[in-house]
């Protein structure tokens, strides 16, 4: 990138000139309201219900399904007076003729069968991340989707819809960071990640994230978001994956690790991604750093700062009479530039707004069965490496 162009881009960064995802599509496409069934009514399923209610005129939740009676009872109490049907068997819910969409927000091990059944029932599908439990399931679901082109399938990787993350992707693509060689991503907490259990026999169903039968653990539940963003921003997949971890603090009967570190090598990019999570320290919480020869982006969920290298910082502080660029406003005394002037909304709102557009246009979502499948495969490889202490290599058949 020429110096003049670089300074122009710097001026754009100070404002909001870089392109952002379009939102608020209802006025463009009329007043079609889609009937939604939510499969899995834990924290995520009930949370998505609240998100859908923030988009009036687009979606109406008409069915709720869960295998746990107390969750259905809670939903019935909360939504008393609403025309919502309740099911404990999702196959029965899929028989509803006026049902347009199924939101799958169940434990990971159920995603494939439930997603498959939804598509084959002729319903549109919003399936939470990660899309599937195994690599083979990801490939199979992508194959099923190809046979049902009228069904819109979106995967719940919300960062693909955030204006902040869109802007960072554009910075990367424009060369603003220079040659990126390192990604450092963490999602830490100091908590056992355990939920209260109403009865001993419900332990594995309620605390499913802790058991390998149901869960992909920290890699699937947390780090998959950051992995997916790297795949999107750089249009890449890992060439090899190596992970290490263990149950290093909470020896409470869990099977999934409470402390992991996964290295993904992107050979075609000349880049290494380090993705880590622990349940034993929350100081850094969520952080996401993308490091290039011209500068580093440091991201939180809803705000980010660009830290230029010293030489680039000097260029950005100058006034270029030709380009008309002006001095930038720096973030406090940190030496960084704010990427957006304001915090973004919940990423699920942007994702659902765009899901509506895709339904109206019968178009492929930004986060779809193919790129969502590749991220699910990367997570499955990470977990295999963690469990087997092996290096896992990307195979040609994974390139959906």
Q: How would you sum up this structure, described in words?
A:
- The structure is a single chain.
- This protein has 400 residues and is of the alpha/beta class.
- Helix content is 34%, strand content 21%.
- It is built from 13 helices and 16 strands.
- It has helices at residues 3-14, 26-29, 43-53, 69-78, 90-94, 111-120, 135-146, 163-173, 203-206, 217-234, 310-317, 347-361, 371-388, and strands at residues 34-39, 59-65, 85-87, 101-104, 124-128, 153-156, 180-187, 240-246, 259-266, 271-278, 286-292, 295-299, 304-308, 330-331, 336-338, 391-393.
- The protein has a ten-stranded mixed β-sheet with strand order 14-15-13-12-11-7-10-9-8-16. Strands 3-2-1-4-5-6 form a six-stranded parallel β-sheet, sandwiched between helices.
- Helix 7 packs antiparallel against helix 13 and helix 10 crosses helix 13.
- The longest helix has 18 residues, at 217-234.
- The chain is globular.
- It starts with a helix and ends in a 7-residue tail after the last strand.
In short:
With 400 residues, the protein is an alpha/beta fold. The protein is built from 13 helices and 16 strands.
Question: How does the SSE layout of this entry go?
Answer:
Layout: H1 3-14, H2 26-29, E1 34-39, H3 43-53, E2 59-65, H4 69-78, E3 85-87, H5 90-94, E4 101-104, H6 111-120, E5 124-128, H7 135-146, E6 153-156, H8 163-173, E7 180-187, H9 203-206, H10 217-234, E8 240-246, E9 259-266, E10 271-278, E11 286-292, E12 295-299, E13 304-308, H11 310-317, E14 330-331, E15 336-338, H12 347-361, H13 371-388, E16 391-393
Parallel strand pairs: 1-2, 1-4, 2-3, 4-5, 5-6, 7-10
Antiparallel strand pairs: 7-11, 8-9, 8-16, 9-10, 11-12, 12-13, 13-15, 14-15
Helix pairs in contact: 6-7, 7-13, 8-10, 10-13
């Amino acid at each position: 990138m020429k110096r003049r162009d670089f300074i122009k881009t710097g001026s754009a960064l100070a404002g909001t000139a870089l392109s952002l995802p379009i939102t608020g599509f209802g006025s463009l496409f009329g007043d079609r309201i889609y009937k939604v069934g939510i499969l899995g009514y834990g924290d995520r399923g009930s949370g998505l219900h609240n998100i859908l209610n923030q988009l009036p005129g687009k979606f109406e939740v008409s069915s709720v399904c869960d295998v746990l009676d107390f969750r259905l009872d809670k939903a019935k109490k909360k939504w008393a007076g609403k025309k919502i049907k309740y099911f404990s068997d999702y196959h029965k819910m899929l028989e509803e003729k006026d049902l347009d969409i199924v939101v799958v927000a169940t434990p990971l091990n159920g995603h494939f069968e439930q997603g498959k059944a939804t598509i084959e029932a002729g319903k549109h599908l919003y399936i939470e991340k990660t899309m599937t439990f195994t690599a083979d399931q990801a490939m199979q679901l992508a194959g099923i989707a190809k046979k049902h082109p009228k069904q819109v399938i979106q995967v719940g990787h919300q960062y693909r819809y955030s204006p902040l993350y869109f802007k960072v992707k554009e910075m990367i693509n424009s060369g603003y960071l220079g040659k990126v060689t390192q990604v450092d991503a963490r999602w830490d907490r100091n908590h056992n990640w355990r939920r209260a259990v109403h009865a001993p026999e419900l332990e594995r169903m309620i605390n499913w994230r802790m058991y390998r039968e149901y869960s992909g653990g920290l890699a699937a539940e947390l780090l998959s978001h950051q992995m997916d963003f790297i795949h999107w921003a750089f249009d890449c997949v890992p060439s090899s994956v190596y992970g290490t971890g263990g149950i290093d603090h909470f020896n409470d009967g869990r099977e999934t690790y409470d402390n992991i570190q996964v290295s993904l090598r992107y050979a075609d990019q000349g880049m290494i991604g380090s993705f880590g999570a622990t349940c034993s320290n929350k100081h850094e919480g969520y952080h996401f750093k993308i490091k290039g020869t011209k500068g580093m982006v440091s991201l939180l969920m809803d705000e980010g700062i660009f830290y230029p290298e010293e030489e680039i910082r000097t260029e950005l502080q100058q006034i270029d009479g030709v380009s008309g660029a002006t001095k930038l406003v720096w973030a406090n005394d940190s030496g960084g530039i704010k990427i957006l002037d304001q915090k973004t909304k919940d990423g699920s709102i942007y994702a659902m707004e765009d899901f509506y557009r895709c339904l109206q246009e019968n178009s492929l979502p930004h986060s779809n069965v193919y790129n969502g499948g590749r991220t699910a495969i990367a997570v499955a490889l990470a977990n295999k490496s963690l469990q087997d202490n092996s290096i896992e290599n990307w195979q040609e058949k994974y390139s959906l």
